[in-house]
């Protein structure tokens, strides 16, 4: 017997308030994306709304500065849209971390092994993918 998740989320007072707050933040994110210039829309996220203060997280310092420059017009558009925002704070979020690329391992093949591989490759048909792979291995080693 399955039940919709929304039934459980709306059941308790704390969960209902959390769900309402999350829905409010999602709506504000949509309004923020519509109000920002296209190059900034993907760079800013609504972080929170508490006591009339909207906190916006920008992905970098440059995006934060640009958003701070348009804060008055942004605040005005949000207020005219009926959102309970008295002020906006812009915070610089941490940039997304990417794993550093590790260099390809250097493998050494002895001259005798290269000769044996070359002899084996000669026994294969000319259009064989295995032969092409072995020859590439010999060239790169």
Task: Summarize the structure in short.
The protein is built from seven helices and three strands; from the N terminus they run H-H-H-E-E-H-H-E-H-H.
Strands, helices and their partners?
Blueprint: H1 5-9, H2 13-35, H3 38-41, E1 44-50, E2 53-58, H4 61-69, H5 71-80, E3 87-92, H6 111-123, H7 129-140
Parallel strand pairs: 2-3
Antiparallel strand pairs: 1-2
Helix pairs in contact: 6-7
Q: What gross morphology would you assign?
A: elongated
Count of individual helical segments: 7
Tell me roughly what share of residues is in helical segments. 40-55%
**Mean pLDDT over the residues:** 85
Distance between the termini: 61 Å
Sheet with most strands: strand arrangement: 1-2-3
Order of helices and strands: HHHEEHHEHH
Q: Work out the count of structural domains.
A: 2
Low-confidence stretches: none
Fold-level CATH name of the largest domain: GMP Synthetase, Chain A, domain 3
CATH architecture of the largest domain: 2-Layer Sandwich
Q: Indicate the structural class.
A: alpha+beta
* Largest sheet entry: 3 strands, mixed
Report the C-alpha radius of gyration, rounded. Answer: 29 Å
Q: What is the CATH superfamily of the largest domain?
A: DnaA, N-terminal domain
Any idea of the CATH class of the largest domain?
A: Alpha Beta
